[in-house]
Amino acid sequence: MQRIKLGRYKHYKGGLYRVIGVARHSERPSQEFVVYQALYYSREFGNNSIWIRPKKMFLEKVLAGGKRVPRFKYLGK
C-alpha cells in the first residue's frame, strides 16, 4: 500500500493542509484514514480544523478542468 508523506499538501481546489498521520478504524483495522489539518480559517469550522478522509480517496485523482489531477498534491515538509 502507498505511504503518505507527512507535511503540507494543496487540495486541487486550492486549500492548504498539513497531514498529521494515518489512522485506523477500530472496527476495521485494515481501513486507513489520513488525518490532516486545514492551514486556514473557515467561518463554518474555525481555525485550523482537523479532518479525516479514507486513504484511498486522499490519494486518488479527480477530474478538474478537463484533466485528471491528484486530489491532494504534496508540497513538502
Describe the structure.
This protein is mainly β and 77 residues long. It has one helix at residues 55-59; strands at 7-11, 16-24, 32-38, 41-42, 46-47, 50-54, 61-64, 67-70, 72-76. The strands form 3 sheets. It has a 5-stranded antiparallel sheet with strand order 6-3-2-1-9. A two-stranded antiparallel sheet has the order 4-5. A two-stranded antiparallel ribbon has the order 7-8. The radius of gyration is 13 Å and the shape is globular.
Task: Describe how the helices and strands are arranged.
Blueprint (H helix, E strand, L loop, with lengths): L6 E5 L4 E9 L7 E7 L2 E2 L3 E2 L2 E5 H5 L1 E4 L2 E4 L1 E5 L1
Antiparallel strand pairs: 1-2, 1-9, 2-3, 3-6, 4-5, 7-8
Main sheet characteristics? 5 strands, antiparallel
Question: What do the pLDDT scores average to?
Answer: 95
Q: Radius of gyration, rounded?
A: 13 Å
Run of helices and strands: EEEEEEHEEE
Count every helix, treating DSSP H or I runs of 4 or more residues as helices: 1
Give the N-terminus to C-terminus distance in angstroms: 21 Å
Output the CATH homologous superfamily: DUF1653-like domain
The chain-level structural class is mainly beta
The CATH topology: SH3 type barrels
Low-confidence stretches: none
In the CATH scheme, the class would be Mainly Beta
For the largest sheet, list the strands in their spatial order: 6-3-2-1-9
> Approximately what portion of the residues adopt beta-strand conformation?
over 45%
- List how many beta strands DSSP finds: 9
Number of separate domains: 1
Q: Helix fraction?
A: under 10%
- The global form is globular
At CATH's second level, what is the architecture?
A: Roll
